[in-house]
Amino acid sequence: MKTENKDEFKQMNVFGTGSFNKDYAQYFIGNSYLNPLTNPQQCPVFLANVTFEPGCRNNWHIHHAEKGGGQLLICTAGEGWYQEEGKAAVSLTPGCVITIPAEVKHWHGAKADSWFSHIAVEVPGENTGNEWCEPVSDSEYEALNHESMKGAKNSEY
Fold first, then answer.
1. Known Pfam families for this protein (predicted)?
2. Range of the domain at 26
3. What is the reported pTM?
């Protein structure tokens, strides 16, 4: 369910907003928040609830790995977008699960008119690392939100 109301969203965001994502702020347009759900020193799989304010999105990026790796997104509250390079964007709502293989350039974030949260799961692999690329342009992003507001349907993964 879309919502621009922060207090209403907090009630929907069952995994909690967490703290301002200052360590990665340079890779986001707008503000994001990070609530780690597992401790990397105690669990081989890192999970975190990532919350995006309306209009916030991360840069294009790639999860590299020689074997395994990649990322899973489990959408939990609000509405957002996911897009792989060269493909149509996917509208994200609570319950959507996106599987992102290693070496796939992509981005994700909130719709312009809604807060959005997903649990990000780092898939274990060998020699993993992230490469942060260019920001999603305002024109690319605004075109998605314009189509969404007209009621366009995007294909699901």
1. Cupin_2
2. 6-149
3. 0.90
